[in-house]
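User: Quick sanity check before I run a bigger batch. Here is a single chain. Can you write out its predicted 3D structure?
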Amino acid sequence: DSFVTKLNASGTALEYSTYIGGAEVDLSTSIAVDGAGNAYITGQTGSNDFPVTQGALDISFGGGYGDVFVMKFNPLGTALDFSTYLGESEQESASAIALDALGNGYVTGRTRSNNFPITPGAFQSSNNGGNGDAFVSKINFAIPDSVQRNDFDGDGDSDLLLVNQDGTVVSVLIQDSVYQSHGFILLEAPATGWTVNSTGDINGDKKADILLYNTITGEYRLVTMDGTTVLTDNVLFSIAPAVGVEPRGMGDFDGNGEDEVLIYQPATGIVALAYLAGGAFSSFEFVTTVDVPNNWTLIEAADFTRDSKTDLLIRNTITGETAVIEMDGSTAVATTSLFTIDPAAGLTNVDTADFNADGKTDILMLHTSGALAVVEMNGLTFQSIHVAGGLQLNEELVNAGLYDGDNKSDFLFHNTSTGDVISGIQDGVTIITFHTVLDHLGPASGWTFHKGH
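Assistant: Done. Predicted structure follows.
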């Protein structure tokens, strides 16, 4: 097997150390580390059971004497964010890996395969023979750095979070839109002010945790999860409701693999972060002020710049201009205008996700007619807008998430008449198929579905 080990700054202790490999010979040849502490490793594997992540570039061993592997470890060394084979029917080996400022990986090595994967317009499109040709590949690590929406078991697929009117909270694990199991998590006690606010990854284990907020006491409460099992359930801090602030979800603003709590004051536009350490409150930090007097408002938090750090999506309610405040921890680096759509057009920002598997966050807008419009983004640059589908009679949109494992975010709908929960699987352009995930959960059942994050 290969291994990767991180020493502390003085070289006196291990911060993490792990095997990497399958049943056959595995060898690492190069490593690169980004500013957030993610480790990128390449090498050669002869194992057909080498660990790969769901939806990776190539999840199957190509054969021959070995394939190249490329992988990304989180800063704690506790989980694979990305791992893929790279190779085909003959032997491949890797020599080096490097990163650019956006986190793209560049791998070079040798291949003897005539069917090695190449891209359209490549400099050299065929193997010229001999004992093998060199190759260079650019990988955009399309599997998102953040946890998939409501992914409680860490399998890369979005799961469901249900809340009953009596306060019962349930997680439902699904894979490829098929029910797997469910578990009763807690009783949120709505009569005493508790509500589910959002989900996120607080402890860096790539499994969604749950943030609750008490509208009466102002308490913020964190429930860490492992699938359908509650690991911890603790109140983090309190902010008196009279202050006028509210939680707006969670996000990894400093890129360390663990989410912070986003706090917003709608009346003034003040944005702050609550930093956590080991699942406990650490500190508050002021971030920025959204220009509320000039009709700007906070819409969403997502990583638009592919630096593994969550940014802020804002919109002008009068002009329809949409912009991103690029973040680096608690520092607002820059504000970039993305596009302007006149509010009279009837489109509203409702979600963010990667709809075409290019590793870049897109924006989902809902038209008053029920049409779902996907705004494709290339980082902070507008690319195009297209209609991917629409709401049917009595349907409401729950969220956009990964419901078939192909890295192209899909849609989750709830039919309020029949109670059916339906995934709309899309191919990057349009919805191509529907799957009933759960049924008979109409209004009479008392269940609602939480969007999550």
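The mean pLDDT is 91.

User: Great, the batch can go ahead then.
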